[in-house]
Amino acid sequence: MAFSHLRYEVRDRIALITLNRPEKLNAFSIPTVHEVLEAIELADGDDGVRVILFTGEGKAYSVGSDLSEAGGDTFDYDKYGKLDGTPRDLGGYITLRLFECKKPVMVAFNGTAAGVGLTMTLAADFRLASTAAKFCFPFVKRGIVPESNASWFLPRLVGLPKALDWMLSARVFSVEEAHAAGLVGSVHAPEDLLPAAFAQAAQIANETAPVSVAIARQLLWRMADAPHPMMAHSVESSGVYHTGRLPDAVEGITSFLQKRPAEYKAKLSEDLPTWWPWWETPEYDPPV
Length: 288
Description:
single chain, alpha/beta, 2-enoyl-CoA Hydratase, Chain A, domain 1, six-stranded mixed β-sheet, globular
């Protein structure tokens, strides 16, 4: 698949998606959103991909929406910006799709991330940053409100007080502050950023069972708002029952006892449980 706003490549079962409009500081336009969604779909549907990793080309990760294309009409969805004919914010399509992913999602902030360039990463599971990175949620300074479902994701990541601070002040904050608050998990010299991201991704890609990872990822995201632990008990029990009958469970235990690397064979395209995705029917209690 050909892309013009990003680069897509698979290295050692890691899909690297690089935002590639450095002359625009990787600003987002409608074609950018389309391509990011296509790249996510491509990676999530490929059994040869175990981890999805985003980064940016040049000195910025992404400075947010490309305000030069429509000017003051950028956020007037009746005039400009409808992705599928409905007046919804474009970044929200990305975070919702990332939220549904079967694969873990990582982001390596090579530089500045602002606006949708930052909020689109909030649905990722891991965020690493260069010492050159800085961050901003500028929405209230632009006369609009947070988007990309940031009001749902950000407080869960850093807590409500810090989310309020960053969103209501719209100030630029440092990578050190982002790290201290938990927005990014680690900080690296620019030349070490991608190697560190690939090393972390490789640990998942090479040492874990993909079906188990997919179920575990969704359990942790979905159960954060569960009203009672019995909901987790139900799905976890079904998950253990399902994965426990797959050859990967035998391989995982046997490789541990034999003190050798495991070789997992189950495929996400074939071996997910029949009750996946359970969250689309919340009243459904998966059978054990």
